[in-house]
Write a structure and sequence with these properties.
about 500 residues, 24 helices, mainly alpha
């Protein structure tokens, strides 16, 4: 009893220590940002090198604490304090200005059409997955696939192959493949980190190589907007970049090489393998918080679960998304309507049960969506202090025609790793890179490919990018552990890609 009491007291002290430590850090960030803001120019566009401070703080804090939600919040707060330059003798007005700017930015983020789209699509995808689970579709598919994939390597290879097949959208890819394959890889004692890496590496890296994907549609539109591609010819110009999107190719190809042992497992992933091999849990600590399937077990499965209850929703989702001009939001709504009719026709559930399960699926997506909204808020404050613009324009001073593709990829990959807003970075970077390539007489196709490749790297590797968070939720893996274990393989792909751009820039 004495030992138990001592343990409880110790736990209590540790808990309170961490709580007090967090309060101290918050107060320090506020005070330091407040003092530093006195020395900054009135116009945030003139911050220059000071614009990197929130980003540097974010990276240090994440690696020190592994608390990504807290890190994004504090880094964003720091940026907003820097922007709200205090007036002499008016601390209250500074507080009001900071809160007003932060509040309006949050509102702007939440009202942004793309972010609203993201919340709707990902939230309803959570409902679709929960309904498929309840109908026994995933269970039946896993049971059938287990008869085909009888080894650890084959289970991972089938995961990679399914990711290649579902190429239409990175969200659809990650959510579908991750949720479907977790049970199969669990049978073969595969760490969830490894599963998450395989799933994530066939999402954005593959979508940017396919002319009929949501990435292709978006990129084509951006290329037309920035004057490189004539109106209506964005897709054809996007296709020209595909052979030179080196990161997408290399990242996707590395996966089967790792699965079959041609490239050995190393770094933090090796520790995850050792944990499972020594009898430890398949999922790292804290994974249940983000697992999209947590709390979705509502009663027993149907007596005769059928894999068709997985295939039909996915088929309808892919088909309707394509038919509605790659609009996944319309695809999700159509799919839910078809599932309602299909599941009730089979007497798998009653209307009220269908609604309850769909609501539970929405609830399961709350934490991933919170992470993504905070990531977009951080991106918003970076836009206000011109962080990305400063990094790009500074790097352009050292570019030559042959070095440009290499420099663009390296600089933007590093920037994107910090900001985590792949498509947002395209909007900022391409209007700078395309005119610069024209002025330097550099290979424009190669330069644009470097921008697109850097965006894929950020989506793939950033700790709080939408792709990382969604994959973590789908595979039931803590997103910090997912990011840190796949980072060495992503950096390997990035290093090889940089060499390719260096070589291609000298040749083409």
């Amino acid at each position: 009893m004495a030992v138990k009491k001592l343990t409880e007291n110790l736990y209590h002290e540790i808990s309170h220590f961490h709580a007090r430590k967090s309060v101290v850090i918050v107060l320090f960030v506020i005070l330091a940002s407040y003092i530093f803001s006195y020395f900054l120019p009135d116009n945030p566009a003139d911050f220059g090198a000071a614009s990197v401070i929130p980003a540097v703080f974010l990276i240090i804090y994440i690696f020190s604490t592994r608390r990504i939600l807290e890190a994004l919040t504090l880094a964003s707060l720091s940026g907003f304090i820097m922007i709200s330059k205090p007036e002499a003798g008016s601390g209250l007005s500074w507080i009001s200005s900071t809160l007003s700017n932060m509040s309006s930015s949050i509102l702007s983020v939440m009202m942004d059409e793309d972010i609203a789209w993201l919340i709707i699509v990902c939230g309803l995808m959570g409902s679709i997955i929960a309904l498929i689970e309840k109908a026994g579709g995933s269970f039946a598919f896993g049971k059938w696939l287990a008869t085909k994939a009888k080894t650890r390597r084959s289970s991972l290879f089938f995961t990679w192959l399914l990711g290649v097949i579902i190429f239409i959208d990175d969200y659809l890819n990650s959510l579908t493949v991750g949720s479907c394959m977790a049970s199969l890889t669990d049978r073969h004692k595969v760490p969830r980190e490894f599963l998450a890496y395989v799933v994530d590496s066939t999402a954005a890296p593959l979508c940017v190589l396919i002319p009929v994907s949501t990435w292709a549609v978006f990129c084509a539109r951006i290329l037309e907007t920035n004057g490189w591609a004539p109106e209506g010819e964005g897709i054809s110009y996007f296709i020209q970049t595909i052979p030179y999107n080196f990161y997408g190719w290399i990242a996707a190809i590395i996966v089967p090489l790792v699965i079959f042992g041609i490239i050995p497992i190393f770094g933090p992933m090796k520790k995850a393998e050792e944990r499972v091999k020594n009898g430890g849990p398949l999922a790292p600590e804290g994974s249940s918080k983000i697992d999209i399937r947590t709390g979705s077990e509502m009663g027993e499965l149907p007596s005769n679960p059928k894999a068709i209850n997985l295939f039909i929703p996915i088929f309808v989702l892919v088909l309707s998304t394509v038919l509605f001009d790659m609009d996944m939001q319309k695809g999700v709504l159509v799919t839910l309507g078809v599932m309602f009719v299909w599941f009730l026709w089979q007497n798998l559930m009653k209307p009220e049960e269908f609604a309850d399960v769909a609501l539970q699926g929405l609830k399961n997506m709350i934490l991933p969506l919170m992470l993504m909204v905070l990531a977009f808020l951080f991106a918003e404050v970076n836009n206000q202090i011109h962080f990305t613009y400063y990094v790009i324009t500074t790097a352009t001073n050292y570019m030559t025609p042959s070095l440009m593709p290499f420099a663009v990829f390296v600089v933007l990959a590093a920037t994107e790793f910090i900001t985590g807003t792949n498509w947002g970075m395209y909007i900022i970077a391409l209007p700078i890179v395309i005119p610069l390539a024209i002025n330097l007489d550099a290979n424009i196709t190669l330069a644009v490919s470097a921008v697109l490749s850097a965006g894929v790297f950020g989506s793939h590797i950033c700790f709080y990018s939408d792709a990382t968070v969604i994959t973590s939720a789908a595979t039931g893996c803590d997103n910090f552990r997912h990011a840190i274990t796949q980072a060495p393989f992503g950096l390997l792909a990035a290093g090889l890609s940089a060499l390719c751009y260096l070589t291609a820039g000298a040749i083409l």
